[in-house]
Specification:
Blueprint: E1 2-4, E2 12-17, E3 20-21, H1 23-40, E4 44-50, E5 56-57, H2 59-71, E6 76-82, H3 86-95, E7 102-106, H4 111-119
Parallel strand pairs: 2-4, 3-5, 4-6, 6-7
Antiparallel strand pairs: 1-2
Length: 122
């Protein structure tokens, strides 16, 4: 399940992932929120956090995640990923060079620092 988070500055889209994340979660929550935000902002910042009960992503969700990132490649300004899931951190390291945005991963114990970083002025 993906939940959109509030209380972030304008230009930041923020999400919390719980349990098993599916393609349907991307289609119904994340993608519409990103598209709506892009109508208002030239560049976006993404805050993406996995909860303690996060159990994984189905293949369709992984593909949607990749598509969202690539379809709006030049419109990402910053990406903060908050997770203790090692494969997500490793995937960021492997594919981060494809995204021309500042990207940073944070352990869940540093979620407040990640929130400060995603909202900080350049």
């Amino acid at each position: 399940m993906i939940e959109q988070l509030s209380n972030f500055p304008a230009g930041v889209v923020a999400f919390l992932c719980r349990g098993q994340v599916t393609k349907a979660d991307y289609d119904s929550v994340l993608v519409p929120a990103v598209v709506k935000a892009l109508e208002k902002h030239e560049k976006l910042r993404l805050y993406y956090e996995t909860a303690a009960d996060f159990s994984g992503m189905d293949p369709g969700a992984i593909w949607e995640d990749f598509k969202v990132g690539m379809e709006h490649l030049t419109r990402w300004e910053r990406v903060a990923v908050v997770t203790d899931v090692e494969w997500i951190t490793q995937a960021m390291r492997l594919f981060g060079f494809l995204v021309p945005a500042a990207m940073k991963s944070f352990p869940t114990s540093e979620a407040e620092q990640a929130r400060a970083w995603i909202g900080a002025a350049n």
